[in-house]
Amino acid sequence: MLAKRIIPCLDVRNGEVVKGVQFRNHEVIGAIEPLAEQYAQAGADELVFYDITASADARVVDKSWVERIARVIDIPFTVAGGISSIAQAQEILAMGADKISINSPALRNPELINSLVEEFGQQCIVIGIDSFYNSETNTYDVYQFTGDESRTQKTTWQTRDWLREVVARGAGEIVLNCMNQDGVRKGYDIEQLSALRNDCPVPLIASGGAGSIADFQQVFTDANVDGALAASVFHKGIIAIPTLKQSLIDAGIAVRPAT
Amino acid sequence: MSLVIVDTACANLSSVRFAFERLGVKPEVTANAERIRSADKVILPGVGTAQAAMRNLQQLELVNVLKQLEQPVLGICLGMQLLTNWSAEGNVDCLGVIPARTLRMQAQDLPLPHMGWNTVKASQNNPLLANISPEQAWFYFVHSYAVAPDDATIATCDYGQTFAAMIRHNNYFGAQFHPERSGAAGAQLLKNFLELTDVNTRA
């Protein structure tokens, strides 16, 4: 049976892993390779490296760390951040990344999704969506440039429409980051995720809000997502992956055992 | 022991190369026919579509070379599908060294691609799954097309349907999943492949 995936996300800035609260006040967590190796050995199913400076700065920073990660870990990993051309995608994939995740550049140029899928195949093209619930309008709005608070801006897209759009253009997987929840560890946005699940015929990964083992259990059972992404609970040692996986197995959720 | 990874010009080859390097083997990545023929073991990787990959192999004049190999060959993911007779992905004739067919997955209501870790079950004598217990046999899959189970199937997987996770005919082996990205179980499988002898490849 296909396992639900546990996916630590490592936000990368200037070659170091950082984490902020609701995308702000980034603090340094540590160097990339030892953390990557540590998570792979602990039983992570996959890793995401999010170069949070790149997209907002409209440039691709030094990505040589991608190849260093590919050498040491034996689980799949995704690289996100500032990939806005076929050539940049080619470079990252050639260095050994399994997937690339596109966010702001896809909003700027949706046709990019089609080009990437045609060139590299659907299986390695992930679309990241930053979705913010606006309580005044009662809408889920898509934001871009979320790596840099000063440039973060709302787009004209509502989340459901953008999700349908990127799936129609061939996206192979969706990471839905619920911004209201990000970094505050109050649980995943079950309501939004379950509402969008039916609009998502490709794998759907929940992001933003994990604070406890119960949160993971809930997002798998109530929102039926394929994977759960989290950062601070892992980086801060609040949840150990082997303990998390055993708890999920005990709860009857299909999970690859940590050992 | 010489190991060649066929440079199919469309594949992400680094992760396969690194996986063997972690096992202490230095593979050669090449599209040179003579180097491929003379290698002790051959890996056929693959990412992208069957149609594009077969086109590349034709342009590289490797179709007949790959069909006539006698040493152990392991096709990975799309590389496995290329070993079959035919793929529905672009309705394309493949290498035809393993009597099997590649079809679009029918996964009921489940998301496609089939992406993530799944268990495989050896369906007959399978030297590549040696020293991997059924409880450990978790592998990482990413695909939307799959080989229909038949006599060439040596391991199966379930995702909305049962499909061939591994196939084999004589010296040709295929794995639908990515052993290079499948943790300790994947590393053991690659090690088993490196240790195959002639006895293993004459069914």
Automatic annotation (TrEMBL), chain A:
Record field: catalytic activity: 5-[(5-phospho-1-deoxy-D-ribulos-1-ylimino)methylamino]-1-(5-phospho-beta-D-ribosyl)imidazole-4-carboxamide + L-glutamine = D-erythro-1-(imidazol-4-yl)glycerol 3-phosphate + 5-amino-1-(5-phospho-beta-D-ribosyl)imidazole-4-carboxamide + L-glutamate + H(+)
EC number: 4.3.2.10
A cellular component term, taken from the record's GO annotations: cytoplasm
Top EC category: lyase
Pathway assignment: Amino-acid biosynthesis; L-histidine biosynthesis; L-histidine from 5-phospho-alpha-D-ribose 1-diphosphate: step 5/9
Keywords attached to this entry: Amino-acid biosynthesis, Cytoplasm, Histidine biosynthesis, Lyase
Any one of the GO BP annotations: L-histidine biosynthetic process
One GO molecular-function entry: lyase activity
Superkingdom, natural source: Bacteria
Compartments where found: Cytoplasm
Function (record text): IGPS catalyzes the conversion of PRFAR and glutamine to IGP, AICAR and glutamate. The HisF subunit catalyzes the cyclization activity that produces IGP and AICAR from PRFAR using the ammonia provided by the HisH subunit.
Subunit structure: Heterodimer of HisH and HisF.
Family: Belongs to the HisA/HisF family.
Name of this protein: imidazole glycerol-phosphate synthase
Automatic annotation (TrEMBL), chain B:
Domain of life, per lineage: Bacteria
GO biological process assignments: L-histidine biosynthetic process
Role: IGPS catalyzes the conversion of PRFAR and glutamine to IGP, AICAR and glutamate. The HisH subunit catalyzes the hydrolysis of glutamine to glutamate and ammonia as part of the synthesis of IGP and AICAR. The resulting ammonia molecule is channeled to the active site of HisF.
Protein name per UniProt: Imidazole glycerol phosphate synthase subunit HisH
EC code(s) of this entry: 4.3.2.10, 3.5.1.2
GO CC terms: cytoplasm
Gene3D superfamilies listed in its UniProt record: 3.40.50.880
Signal peptide annotation: none
Listed Pfam families: GATase
Catalytic residues in the record: C77, H178, E180
Originating gene: hisH
Keyword Transmembrane helix assigned: no
GO terms of molecular function: glutaminase activity; imidazoleglycerol-phosphate synthase activity; lyase activity
InterPro entries registered for this protein in UniProt: Class_I_gatase-like, GATASE, Imidazole-glycPsynth_HisH
